[in-house]
């Protein structure tokens, strides 16, 4: 269905608002978009505006056939031979090397497997062990994703360290001679605020502390420069901007220079230097493989590997340029379409502080998002009052953005009259 056609399931209740002369026209922006053709690499339908790729990326078109082959041939016919003949055993490092350029890492430093949370645990404990005695404190971003906070508290308890929660913007300056490690987000999952990874890392290093960077909301959305920025350890999700599918395995970056000292709290036979020796003592594998634990989740991992093919020939700098253009366009359309004060953008306006999402505060955000979804605009709600919209430059169009704002305006206009949730409330 084209942008101008009426959705028969969810007809708009008011006439579409044309873009004013203040902002460029969505069609013109799409026509000039060098990445527009990449949308065909995904399974999407024109009835839905999908702005939730920061939660679950859309399905890359090549994944179903690849997974069918993995199941029918590699598992069904080759069975256990696939561990060697189909490259299953080395998939965690191979898929890691495929992610590496997206996060600014040279080969041999990224391993794929387990959930993000499990990798945060490995990285934090390993960092505390690397930092050594006298470094008695762990810092964590006070507004972090719950898992990160829970794990930091648990690791502090397990390792006999103290946990200090500090606002993200102040965390680097809070580090001192007692700090072992800080667990920090590259992009805040609620507000979409982007932090300067290089500056944070430099300040932590100046205090003698290590950094574990959570890349869940930046990997695949904007340039990440782990090697150049001197980041010690990092983790990220496979199912958001990397489009690996629900529950896709996460990744762990272990800086090459730290690998010999990376002492995993979860050693398994997969991270052993000689897994089939089956020795009593664990001898860590050389290199990033020591970040592995157990038998890799092959179906999910190979779905992620196939999903990463959408990056073929894609320049992450162009992805960033489009992401900023999409979010600029969204903010401009919100400002000119919604009555002043109806929603409050909480995502920074400065490009250098903005990730690839925009969050709008509204007191009835939960109800508003439910209605948006009912009308075919998929974002998400984050308690207590945020409407969260993710922009995936590989497949989000300017027409999507335009339509999302028009539907948002309609939903807000349709809120019950006199409701405390109305405009300006
Ligand atoms: C910033 C951040 N960190 C950690 C996680 C936890 O990821 P997982 O559920 O894969 O462990 C998420 C999940 O969305 C996240 O957004």
UniProtKB/TrEMBL annotation:
Gene Ontology molecular function, alphabetical: kynureninase activity; pyridoxal phosphate binding
First-level EC class: hydrolase
UniProtKB keywords: Hydrolase, Pyridine nucleotide biosynthesis, Pyridoxal phosphate
GO annotation terms (biological process): anthranilate metabolic process; L-kynurenine catabolic process; L-tryptophan catabolic process to kynurenine; NAD+ biosynthetic process; quinolinate biosynthetic process
Residue positions where N6-(pyridoxal phosphate)lysine is found in the record: 240
Source organism, top-level taxon: Bacteria
Renumbered residue ranges of the record's region Disordered: 1-25
Function of the molecule: Catalyzes the cleavage of L-kynurenine (L-Kyn) and L-3-hydroxykynurenine (L-3OHKyn) into anthranilic acid (AA) and 3-hydroxyanthranilic acid (3-OHAA), respectively.
Entry-linked NCBIfam families: kynureninase
The protein's name in its UniProt record: Kynureninase
Organism: Streptomyces alkaliphilus
């Amino acid at each position: 269905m084209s942008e101008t056609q009426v959705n028969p399931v969810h007809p708009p209740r008011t006439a579409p608002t044309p873009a004013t002369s203040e902002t460029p026209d969505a069609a013109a922006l799409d026509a000039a978009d060098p990445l527009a053709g990449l949308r065909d690499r995904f399974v999407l339908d024109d009835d839905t505006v999908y702005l939730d790729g920061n939660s679950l990326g859309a399905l890359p078109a090549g994944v179903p056939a690849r997974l069918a082959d993995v199941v029918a041939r590699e598992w069904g016919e080759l069975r256990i031979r696939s561990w060697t003949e189909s490259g299953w055993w080395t998939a965690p490092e191979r898929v890691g090397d495929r992610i590496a350029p997206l996060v600014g890492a040279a080969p041999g430093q990224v391993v794929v497997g387990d959930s993000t949370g499990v990798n945060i645990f490995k990285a934090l404990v390993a960092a505390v062990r690397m930092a050594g005695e006298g470094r008695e404190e762990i810092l964590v971003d006070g507004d972090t994703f719950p898992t990160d906070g829970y794990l930091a508290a648990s690791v502090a308890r397990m390792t006999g360290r103290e946990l200090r929660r500090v606002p993200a913007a102040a965390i680097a300056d809070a580090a001192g001679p007692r700090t072992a490690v800080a667990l920090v987000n590259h992009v805040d999952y609620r507000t979409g605020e982007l932090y300067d990874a290089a500056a944070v890392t430099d300040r932590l290093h100046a205090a003698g502390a290590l950094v574990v960077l959570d890349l869940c909301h930046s990997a695949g959305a904007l340039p990440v420069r782990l090697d150049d920025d001197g980041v010690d350890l990092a983790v990220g999700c496979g199912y958001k901007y990397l489009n690996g599918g629900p529950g896709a395995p996460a990744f762990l970056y272990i800086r090459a220079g730290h690998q010999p000292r990376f002492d995993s709290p979860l050693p398994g036979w997969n991270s052993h230097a000689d897994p089939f020796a089956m020795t009593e003592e664990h001898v860590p594998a050389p290199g990033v493989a020591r970040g592995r634990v157990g038998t890799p989740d092959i179906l999910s991992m190979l779905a992620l590997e196939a999903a990463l093919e959408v990056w073929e020939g894609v320049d992450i700098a162009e992805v960033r340029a489009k992401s900023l253009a999409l979010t600029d366009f969204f903010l401009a359309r919100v400002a000119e379409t919604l009555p002043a004060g109806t929603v409050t953008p909480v995502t920074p306006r400065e490009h250098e502080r903005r990730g690839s999402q925009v969050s709008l505060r509204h007191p009835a955000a939960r109800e508003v998002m439910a209605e948006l979804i009912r009308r075919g605009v998929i974002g998400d709600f984050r308690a207590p009052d945020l409407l969260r919209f993710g922009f995936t430059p590989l497949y989000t169009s300017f027409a999507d953005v335009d339509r999302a704002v028009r539907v948002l305006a309609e939903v807000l206009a349709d809120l019950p009259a006199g409701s405390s949730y109305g405009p300006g409330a």
